[in-house]
Design a protein that fits this description.
By secondary structure, this protein is of the alpha+beta class. It contains five helices and six strands, in the order ββαααβαββαβ.
Length: about 170
Amino acid sequence: MIGYSQGSELDELDLAILRTLQDDGRISNADLAQRINLSPPATHARVRRLTERGYIRGYVALLDKAKLGYDMTCFISVSLQMHQVEGLEAFRASVRQFPEVLECHHVTGEFDFLLKAVVRNRQDLERFVVNRLTPIPGVARINTSLALSETKSTTALPLPANSPHGD
């Protein structure tokens, strides 16, 4: 068994379930059970337990940004004037409201936050930066980088291979 946070443990079947669901979240319980060599009721119970314990947060459809007209992926670094908890939380609360922001990370280094955002074009980018980010109280500096191309994009976590001991 592999120990993870909060004292919970995952065995090889749990990891096989998680690997399979990362690859195909729409797989039927019967197909999942067959793939991991377990009965459907036992498989369903394990998936339910993994969900209840927070290993599985949800299921989504991954959409194609370009086909939906989002031609620009941007990485936006933001510095705040002050670093009190209230200012950090106010910034986080504001950013959570912006559908353009796919990810927001509080980071170390020269900037305080790193945002991954998508916009349709440079006019949308300008509106987003000028009308939405800049007015947030406490924002001191914004630096935007545009992705020229995407070499790798995944939502799959690097789970251990079949053996929890790396055999």
